[in-house]
Amino acid sequence: MDLFLQTLVSGFLKGGLYALIGMGMTLIMGVMGIINLAHGQIMMVGMYITYSLFALYGVDPYLSLFVSMPAIFVLGVTIQKYLLNPLLRAETILPENQVLMTVGVGMVLTEVMRFIFTSDYKSARTSYSNATFFLGEISFSVPLVIDLFIAIMMTVALFLFLVKTDTGKSIRATAQDKEAASLMGINAERITYITFGLGSALVAAAGTLLMPIFYLFPDIGGPFTRKAFVICVLGGLGSTVGAIFGGITLGLAEAFGATYVAMEFEDMIGLVMFILVLLFLPGGFKRITKI
Amino acid sequence: MSFFKIDNMVKHFGGLAAVNGVSFEVKKGQIFGLIGPNGSGKTTLFNLISGYFRPTSGSIHFKGKRIDQLKTHKIIHLGVGRTFQVVKPLKRMSVLDNVIAAAFSHAITKHHARDIAEETIEFCGLTDRIGDLAKNLTIGDRKRLEITRALATKPELLLLDETFAGLNPNELNDALDLIGKISGSGITIIIVEHIMKIIMSISDHIHAINFGQTIAEGTPKQVAADPHVIEAYLGDQELNA
Amino acid sequence: MKVKNRRMMTAPLAALLFLLVFPLFVSNDYYLHLMILALMWVMIGSAWNLLAGYTGQVSFGDAAFFGTGAYTAGLLVNHLGWSPWWGIPLGGVTAALLGLPFGWICFRLRGAYFALATLALNEIMRHIATIWESLTDGMVGIMILQTFYAPIDSPIGELSSKTPYYYIILFMAVFSVSTVIWVMNSKLGYYFLSIREDQDAAESLGINTHYYKMISLGIAAALTGLAGGFYMNYMGFIDPETVFSLHDISIMAILVGIVGGVGSVYGPAVGAFIMVMMQEAFRTGGFGLLDAFAEYTGSQFVATSASLITGAHVLGFGVLVVLVIRYMPNGVVGDWSRLMKFILGRFQRQV
Ligand SMILES: Nc1ncnc2c1ncn2[C@@H]1O[C@H](COP(=O)(O)OP(=O)(O)OP(=O)(O)O)[C@@H](O)[C@H]1O
Ligand SMILES: [Mg+2]
After folding, report:
1. What is the mean pLDDT of residues A9-24?
2. CB-CB: which of A33, A103, A112 is closest to C315?
3. ∠ CA(C107), CA(C40), CA(C171), 5° rounding?
4. What ipTM was estimated for this complex?
């Protein structure tokens, strides 16, 4: 029973971060209608920013959120503005050109980081990295609890932004109906920059939050990109609320898989869930939550 | 056995009842007019008949066979052809290739499909556009291509969704002639049209809907005089157009 | 869709003639190796193009089918003691058997799902090959004895051991391209194009879009699996990281298609040669020219840049992806006229 509860707790904590990753991806998917296959790689760059600040100046990883998020926001805007949007104007056979471009961007980001930091494992070990506290028999990792707390705050902030602000409303309108939105006078190009920037900043935040407990190397991006799209498919492509459910589901599934099946299956569990969702719940949780 | 019959058709989109209890019957060889103001559910009905949507409830029978749970391509093979209100040309294929693709529904060899296609294109008067890419056609020719493609699937029942919208007077006359020719060749037609004068003049029978519900049915004369129809179209200048 | 156009046939026939006699004049193992790889990519690229370029269903996970073909061949040798050559046809069969049910599942949904699902399939297959050690030997990989490894005596003198592989893959590549041509001139081709252009319209023409997308995937998977079976025979060694590689196989397949020209018959063939040469050039620092240049000048700076460039060859590859998609989205074949105008324009201005 304790093992079960322990697994539940650690899966849920991890799920909070996954939700953040998934929301970033699903936001981009909703507005641009594309899957961003550089999502994990963008997160990886954010992690290197956090790592550098820590290694060079001893900045606490949580503090470096204030640097990594804006920096990656700018990176996202740049990618959207100079690499993705121009593709819309070219007449091509494959509508997937934008997706392919994100693959290329992901490769370049990975290799540039490898060039700078080499392939070695890096980490930002802090005094609290291994700290835990107990409730009954169940241990809670301190950094993961802080992470969940910050992730919840960011989620709330994101929803307030989407619901209350003009820009947020424009983003939602564009996601719902591009043509109608541009008829309403929404500057679609600007919305795409902001959305890509925002989605990138969110995933960068997740990466930064992971830094105290995780290790870092350039190839870490790929697996996280895959997690991100699994989360989105679980939640229903383009659904922000769905991404939260999807993130937590994936976190739990991975934790239970690792505990009860085998460690080495952890990565595969998300992918198998992906196929199962396609089979039995095409459309993901969105089918149930309707948002 | 009736040729084509819709019973108590209902289609909900979330909370909206786009079609709400419509029933009608079409006799073989008729030109059957389906009218109603914007958003009244005409296209939705077509999508239900041709299997793009599943009905919330109700049934559709074609030549005695229930078709409302079938996939679109099955329904097409049974002999129902359709056009789209918002035309859907296969843009980067030539007019001929567009029609050949349709003709393959009744042909195995390319040779045979090509023969059917050329014949149908000739019938519809698109021969001088035969080599053009579909994306380069004018709106009038695109609408004509829609009809040509649908005819190449050899339908017994043809659904025409606003084939006249956006045409200039010359094209309009050509289109009217074409519909006469199609009907003359024995194909039953259900036609959706906004221009009252046209629909009144070519239909044998008219069914009027508003907000997804039947408001009148009968001969063109009867329907034109129906107070519900006049009310529904009140202020709609197209009535007088 | 008139592929059989006389003027369009001359260049491919000339190329074929050149390829047929190539090993008679060049017996250098290294060049033969590059040609063999390029021909293998002609196959994979053509298959990818049938599915993506002609049917509009972009696969991001061709390695799943390639690796399945390769492992089929390897496992037949290791577990059943069959000749690895059986692995080529059977690799095609197993890859298709993987692709068909997979297609049945994911073609029920439109949109990004297929692309994502292929990515997932790629990863799942790689994991399976890694984890199922009792069957596949996991990370250790599979090693088999190659059929041809020693130079071959022939009436025209000693031939490289690679010559038979060369002709086999040449035959397979020609077979693939011909299959694509044949398919695109048949009912299937019309149906695939219709699906690519507009799925709703295709259904209204009586096309069972779900079924024909599966057929397209089945053919593409089979051709890719054949290539995988060949790879096992030719290389004699495979492991999960090579044959199920996302970058080196799946993304490479896409690049071959795009660089050459999506939705054109010979595009992927052209793309295959360009991409294999590019990759090799990056990997070896311009086929060793950079090193030679460094030695010639004796400059430390050149030597350092040379080693940096070869060290960052994946980066070069990534930059290439970005540039190609940004500036030549229709590939060399598709954007040929634009490309010529650009080059000639430059040239004329200089003159
Ligand atoms: N796929 C859909 N999802 C949600 N609502 C829909 C969908 N298709 C149609 N509707 C709604 O159903 C109602 C009926 O639409 P429909 O297109 O059938 O009208 P129509 O009679 O063809 O109108 P028009 O004359 O403008 O073509 C409208 O309110 C429309 O917004
Ligand atoms: Mg309509």
Report:
1. 91
2. A112
3. 105
4. 0.92
Contact A94 C262 (CB under 8 A): yes
- Closest alpha carbon to A238 in B12, C213, C116: C116
Q: How far apart are CA C84 and CA C98, in angstroms?
A: 20
Superfamily, domain B4-234 = P-loop containing nucleotide triphosphate hydrolases (3.40.50.300)
Domain extents in chain C: 32-244, 248-351
**B85 CB under 6 A from ligand 1?**
yes
Task: Say yes or no: A104 contacts chain C, CB-CB below 8 A.
Answer: yes
pLDDT digits (tens, 9 = 90+) for A111-145: 999 989 988 898 888 888 788 888 888 888 888 88
User: For residue A43, what are the domain limits?
Assistant: 2-289
Q: What is the pLDDT of residue A289?
A: 57
Segments of chain C with pLDDT less than 70: 1-8, 157, 285-287, 309-311, 345-351
pLDDT-flagged residues of chain B (< 50): 237, 239-241
Task: Give DSSP secondary structure letters for B48-81.
Answer: HHTTSS--SEEEEEETTEE-TTS-HHHHHHHTEE
pLDDT tens across B123-166, in order? 999 999 999 999 999 988 999 999 999 999 999 999 999 988 88
Residues of C with CB under 8 A from a CB of B: 1, 185-187, 190-191, 193-194, 197-198, 200-209
**For a substitution probing ligand 1, which of B42, B49, B199 has the most ligand atoms within 8 Å of its CB?**
B42
C-beta B35 within 6 A of ligand 1: no
Q: How close is the Cα of B87 to the center of ligand 2, in Å?
A: 12
Q: What is the CATH number of the domain that holds A55?
A: 1.10.3470
CA distance C238 to C144: 9
Strand-pair partners of B33: B191, B206
Q: Report the C-alpha gap between C206 and B105 in whole angstroms.
A: 6
- Count chain A–chain C contacts defined by CB atoms under 8 A: 131
Written as one string, the DSSP assignment of C113-158 is HHHHHHHHHHHHHHHHHHH-HHHH-GGG-EE---S--S-B--TTS-
pLDDT for the residue C350 = 55
Alpha-carbon span C90 to C70, nearest angstrom:
10
Domain count, chain A: 1
Which of C187, C191, C205 has its CB closest to that of B76? C205
Question: Is C196:C55 a contact under the CB 8 Å cutoff?
Answer: yes
Q: DSSP of B37-50, one letter per residue?
A: STTSSHHHHHHHHT
CA distance C183 to C177: 10
Separation in Å, CA A5 to CA A141, A248, A256, B176: 14, 15, 10, 74
Q: How far is CA C328 from CA A93, A105, C262, C279, C321, in A?
A: 12, 16, 11, 18, 10
In terms of Cα–Cα distance, which of A91, A35, A81, A84 is closest to C328? A91
pLDDT, residue A286, reads 65
- Closest residue to atom 22 of ligand 1, CA basis: B43
> How far apart are the C-alpha atoms of A243 and A25, rounded to whole Å?
9
Indicate which residue's Cα is closest to atom 12 of ligand 1: B18
